[in-house]
Amino acid sequence: MPLGHEAISPAQVQSPNIERTQSAIVHPAEESDQPVTSAGRKTNLLDLPAELRIRIWTETLRASADTSLLHTCRTLYMESSSILYQRPVHFASQKKLFAWIDRSESSELTRVRFLTLRLTDVDLSSLFNTSPNSNGQRISAWDLYQRELIRLDEALEALPSLSQLILVPPDKHKSVFLKSMYMCFLRRIPVRCHKLERLIVHDDNSVLQKVPELRRLAKVVCDNSTSSQSPSTLDSMHESQSKMKREDRIVIKEESASDES
Q1: Is 176 exposed, middle or buried (0-12, 13-18, 19+ CB in 10 A)?
Q2: Among 25, 50, 143, 198, fewest CB within 10 Å belongs to which?
Q3: 55, 84, 113 — which closes off a domain?
Q4: How far apart are the first and last CA of the chain?
Q5: Total structural domains in the chain?
Q6: Pairing of strands 219-222, 250-254
Q7: Same domain, 63 and 110
């Protein structure tokens, strides 16, 4: 036998090292007790970074009109409420607009950029009240329309950051008072909406002749194709608005704000 080498019996050659093999075996019971790796760990939505959460709220609220998500917890509401007011808002009547403004914070209303509003007739049911008011006078139809115009003006004042306003006028076959309120409201738009970049009126192009104050706006677009539609079509009207070709509209005026004298 050469020096420096140990004798190895045949039994040692054929038999594996049982002790070493058993030590390398991982039993299922022991494997289940191991901690879960980061790849398999479930992450709470509110544990994500704030920037990522806000991105999720933005994409969710942009893709759906359902706002029930905001009421799941206070943290979610606080983070997503500002995003909600940055979405385009649509109102089938000024009454709904007034109610929405009344229950909103001023800081939230300053985030509104896009508004679609259908003007409707005034509720005249109070004219049937035979009792005089505190001044001993009975209210007239003109008083009701005047009050409505004041509220419309206050609504514009509450939305100072509007960049686009889509306006659907009232039925042309209504009263003279309603037509007068509509024209007066158009005159208030350049006064209140200093940041307005585009006004879209679903009326014919005679609006500019009737309300020359609109020339002060950067851009006024008239489109009479949807002025007679019902309020239920407001959402579909807004969706189709972006798809309309420019040549299908009548551009009243388009100029930069720097051109104003």
Answers
A1: exposed
A2: 25
A3: 84
A4: 113
A5: 2
A6: antiparallel
A7: no
Q: Are residues 114 and 212 in the same domain?
A: yes
Residues 75-105 have pLDDT tens digits of: 877 777 777 788 899 999 999 999 999 999 8
Domain annotation covers residue 27: no
The boundaries of the domain holding residue 97 are 87-129+136-261
Number of helices (H) and strands (E), helices first, in the chain?
Answer: 11, 6
Global pTM reads 0.65
Q: Which amino acid is at 147?
A: R
Tens-level pLDDT at each residue, the chain (261 residues): 444 445 545 444 444 454 444 444 545 444 445 544 455 567 787 788 888 888 887 777 766 656 676 777 888 777 777 777 888 999 999 999 999 999 998 988 999 999 999 999 999 988 887 777 677 678 899 999 999 999 999 999 999 999 999 999 998 777 899 999 999 999 999 999 999 999 999 998 899 999 999 999 999 999 886 554 554 455 555 554 544 434 333 333 333 333 433
Q: Which residue has the tokens 């007068």?
A: 180
Per-residue CA distances from 261 to 213, 216, 220, 258 (Å): 14, 9, 18, 8
Q: Are residues 73 and 145 in the same domain?
A: no
CA count, 13 A, side-chain hemisphere, 104? 20
The answer to whether 158 and 106 have CB atoms below 8 angstroms apart is: yes
Q: Same structural domain for residues 55 and 156?
A: no
CA 59 to CA 56: how far, in whole Å? 5
Q: Is 173 within the bounds of a domain?
A: yes
